[in-house]
Specification:
Distance between the termini: 42 Å
Structural class: alpha/beta
Radius of gyration: 21 Å
Number of helices: 10
Number of strands: 15
Order of helices and strands: EHEEEEEEHEHEHEHEHEHEHHEHE
Strand order of the largest sheet: 7-8-9-10-11-12-13-14
Oligomer: single chain
Bound molecules: phosphoenolpyruvate, manganese (II) ion
Helix content: 25-40%
Strand content: 15-25%
Length: 339
């Protein structure tokens, strides 16, 4: 439940409410709203204790949060979360483009890609250094050497960097180089990893598990929010269905639905979501039309030579066309893309 304090509530009255929450064995989460304080009460069946607060002064209203996810819900925070990634805002009406290779393969290809996507309006460079591959025989990434290349590309181009972290023990290492930690579909329910990423305080992009419901996904986000990390964004990247013509089925429904249920930004990955480069731009446009706050797209200067996911990577010219179309689309929708 959430306890909404009145405009006139004094700090002492807020402190009494917070103390009471602790006495009941529950956890307070204070949010400083624009004009009043709201205290989230997390844990167990908090609403059952509402009578204990009925007579405390300074309380305007006690509201039950009906969803199992609390801090991620719109009931808890009606306004959109805006995440500041070193000056790049993610959330609200902005549409942010994250682009780059599936894997960091080497410095030259990374710099070539980074320079190109930056010149067309991308603000964030993607590239995996630690790759969770389905087969143990596939390319596993360059590890820390790849992280250093991403940092070099950031220094040269000004792009912010997003890269995946696959184990809790690597969170600190990856957070030293990355502006955003990516948690992949295969790790959405790796709770030790979620907690460590939550504790790091770095912005995190949480991909939807390929077989996870929206509720499970939001509860996974709740693991990080409840560690005090409010800089969490979600990424729809396609789910497993009966359909085998495409690698996954990109769940466009999830975009406006999650934005109704949650205040967290929603990013869409049409590259993993389709598995085919020719479908990436149409689905990217559909995602933005459906309300996505951003896109993450795989781009490679020579997709045929890519060490991973070449079939779903855009070449530079196709990426250029997508950026032109996105500029036109966001203009029609009264949204904004960086130019
Ligand atoms: C990726 O972004 O390259 C990736 C492996 O993503 P996912 O976790 O969605 O498969
Ligand atoms: Mn990939």
């Amino acid at each position: 439940m959430i306890i909404v304090m009145s405009h006139q509530a004094t700090p002492a009255q807020v402190a009494v409410v917070v103390e009471k929450i602790g006495e009941l064995g529950l956890k307070p989460e204070i949010s400083h709203g624009e004009d009043r304080k709201v205290i989230g009460v997390v844990g167990g069946n908090a609403y059952a204790y509402r009578e204990a607060f009925a007579h405390l002064p300074g309380i305007q209203e006690i509201v039950q949060i009906t969803k199992p996810f609390k801090l991620a819900s719109r009931e808890w925070q009606p306004r959109d979360t805006l995440i500041d990634v070193g000056g790049v805002t993610i959330g609200g009406d902005h549409v942010v483009m994250m682009a780059g290779p599936c894997s960091v393969e080497g410095l030259e290809m990374l710099l070539e890609t980074a320079r190109h996507v930056a010149s067309r309006g991308a603000q964030i460079l993607r590239g995996g250094a630690f790759k969770p591959r389905t087969s143990p025989y596939s390319f596993q990434g360059l590890g820390e050497e790849g992280l250093r290349m991403l940092a070099a590309a950031r220094d040269e181009t000004g792009l912010k960097v997003i890269t995946e972290v696959v184990t809790p023990g690597d969170v600190e290492l990856v957070a030293r180089y990355a502006d955003i930690l990516q948690i992949g579909t295969r790790n959405m329910q790796n709770y030790a990893l979620l907690q460590e990423a939550g504790r790091s305080g770095r912005p995190v992009m949480l991909k939807r598990g390929m077989s996870s419901t929206i509720e499970e996904w939001l509860l996974a986000a709740e693991y990080m929010l409840s560690q005090g990390n409010r800089n969490v964004m979600l990424c729809e990247r396609g789910i497993r269905t009966f359909e085998t013509s495409t690698r996954f089925t990109l769940d466009i429904n999830a975009v406006p639905l999650v934005r109704e249920l949650s205040h967290l930004p929603v990013i869409v990955d049409p590259s993993q979501g389709t598995g085919r480069w020719s479908l990436v731009s149409p689905l990217a446009l559909a995602a933005v039309a459906a309300g996505a706050n951003g896109l993450i797209v795989e781009v490679h200067p020579h997709p045929d030579d890519a060490l991973s996911d070449g079939a779903q990577s855009l070449d530079l010219a196709t990426f250029d066309k997508l950026m032109i179309d996105l500029g036109r689309l966001t203009g029609a929708l009264v949204r904004q893309t960086a130019q």
